[in-house]
Amino acid sequence: MDIIRTHFTPALRKVPGIVVGILEKDELDIVSLGTVETAPDPGSLCWEIGSITKVFTGLLLADMSLRGEIGLDDPIGRHLPDPVARRLPALQPTLTDLATHTSGLPRLPMSIYRMAKKSDNPYSRLTEDDVFDYLGAKTKRPRRRKSRYSNYGMGLLGHLLARTGGQPYAALLEERILAPLGMSATQIGSCGEGTAIVQGFRKGQPTPPWTFGALEGAGGLRSTVDDLTTFARACIDPPEGTVGEALQLATQPFHRTRTSAGNKGLGWMLRTGDRRKRTTETTWHNGGTYGAASFLAVDPPRSTAIVAFGNTGPGLFAPLDGPSWAVFDSLGSETSASE
Known about the structure:
The chain is an alpha+beta fold. It has helices at 2-8, 53-66, 82-85, 95-99, 110-116, 128-133, 151-165, 169-178, 216-219, 225-236, 242-250, 321-330, 334-338, and strands spanning 17-24, 27-34, 47-48, 187-188, 200-202, 205-207, 221-223, 263-264, 269-275, 278-289, 292-299, 304-310. The protein has 13 helices and twelve strands. A seven-stranded antiparallel β-sheet has the order 2-1-12-11-10-9-8, with helices on both faces. The longest helix is centred in the middle third of the chain and has 15 residues, at 151-165.
């Protein structure tokens, strides 16, 4: 599609390799650019998806709530070991607060930030004790809910769900979400046996992929364009059963703001806009590690979605967001149809 090349080619100045998948009315087009342009099957290339993992952590929360295993408004202490729970105040963040970035928790506690900042793989050494050590008498639910993006909060949520579910995060997510949706290439640490991850670059130099220790739910998944467009199809036309109900529940606006792009679902970002005098609500998320950038947006009413991956991290700006939105918002127009 020429429209993809038009909008994404400028990003190649910073990102060596890019793959973009466009889903429109169940038709999938995949375009690869730069160093991966000659890949024989670009849809199966394995990428770090970074914070798009948060979408799946939110889905796991929705699934477990529908099964009656947890409550969306459970205080976090209900799912912490007793010694940690006893340190918390009476009014503490809920699981939904964690999933909507309204818990008041920082992006990263300073203790974890100090550990992470000098490493090429900053989260790799995090243990359960490191995660729980920050929680205490000051872990209070804010009187006024407001957005404060927190990798720590979403990672904590994934860890609490795994503890409650009695399985490691990766196994629980596989059983409840990934396997039912047929997403065999979306996994913690790999995209399947023998599948190499696309080499990432930081400041022009090769950099290792990230591992997330006890905060896997914040960004530990790896996936492919093929798998995430499979996921997008399920978001557009949810299957029957609990996983389909979870897909719909997670996209509800659990936190509303005054801005068109500020609403939050469970793990999802929601963008509300007036497109040709039709109000649409797009579910989306981006992601980034030192060596990868990613973007996913789905508009079920239009039966459209976009997935984009690149092998350089965001830095100060997310390099794939701008071109992804430009292409996504043009889908369904006469211009994009002719291309």
